[in-house]
Design the sequence.
């Protein structure tokens, strides 16, 4: 299982230095939360920041668009250097257009849903996406508590993959820490997005070791 640190909790710090340290720790992904204060009640950054960071980092840029009408802006995030672009099903009436636009640029496509959206609503798109992102908090802010019942969506996706011979990546985002990291691993997540907990101190190697060594025997 891969870790994708989210920069949401460190936006006021030296991001170039942070990305360099993340890469030096052996991490492959960085998660970039784009919020517009419309689809979610918070505003973060836009494609300009991603474009600037792209010049200074070889990490896989995992861009999560929490914005209304992503079809109007997705090309900006393609051009900025995103490797994976995930959009929300609830934010667009043109999901197939968004998927096609991203794939046409030879980028990977992710699709995400909020906690209250039934996972079955993803079925029409599971043949065409490279990644499914399950939100385990209400999107908008970091530092929220993990919603353990969202692991049922991961289990459903794993079952769907097996029954339909699909191999899209499954990512989970929100409230991940030492106590639930292994729960995510045991149910089959491929990538976990970790923000507040990952950046709790400057020793990223220590944090990774803590996550991997913690034993949680209360798995569902």
Sequence:
């Amino acid at each position: 299982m891969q870790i994708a640190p989210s920069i949401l909790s460190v936006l006021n710090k030296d991001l170039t230095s942070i990305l360099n340290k993340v890469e030096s720790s052996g991490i492959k992904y960085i998660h970039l939360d784009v919020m517009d204060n419309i689809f979610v009640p918070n505003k973060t950054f836009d494609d300009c920041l991603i474009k600037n960071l792209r010049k200074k980092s070889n990490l896989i840029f995992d861009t999560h668009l929490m914005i209304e009408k992503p079809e109007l802006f997705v090309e900006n995030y393609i051009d900025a250097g995103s490797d994976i672009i995930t959009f929300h099903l609830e934010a667009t009436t043109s999901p197939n257009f968004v998927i096609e636009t991203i794939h046409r640029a030879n980028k990977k496509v992710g699709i995400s849903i909020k906690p209250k959206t039934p996972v079955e609503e993803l079925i029409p798109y599971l043949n065409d996406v490279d990644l499914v992102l399950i939100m385990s908090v209400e999107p908008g802010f970091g530092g929220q508590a993990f919603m353990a019942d969202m692991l049922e969506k991961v289990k459903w996706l794993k079952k769907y993959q097996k029954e339909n011979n699909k191999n899209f990546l499954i990512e989970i985002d929100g409230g991940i820490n030492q106590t639930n990291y292994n729960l995510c691993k045991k149910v089959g997540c491929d990538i976990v997005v970790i923000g507040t907990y990952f950046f709790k101190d400057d020793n990223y190697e220590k944090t990774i070791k803590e996550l991997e060594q913690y034993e949680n025997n209360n798995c569902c």
Remarks:
- The chain has a mean pLDDT of 96.
- The two ends are 18 Å apart (CA to CA).
- Helices lie at 15-24, 47-54, 74-79, 95-104, 151-164, 181-187, 204-213.
